[in-house]
Amino acid sequence: MNAIEMKCRREALGLSRDALADTLDVREQNITRWEFGKNPPRDWGWIDTALTRLEDYREELVAGLVAETLQVHGASGAALMLTYSDRGSFYHWLPEMAEPDLGDGVAQIPVELHRSATAEAARRLRVEHGVQARIEAVPKPKPKPEH
Question: Is the pLDDT of residue 107 over 80?
Answer without folding.
Answer: no
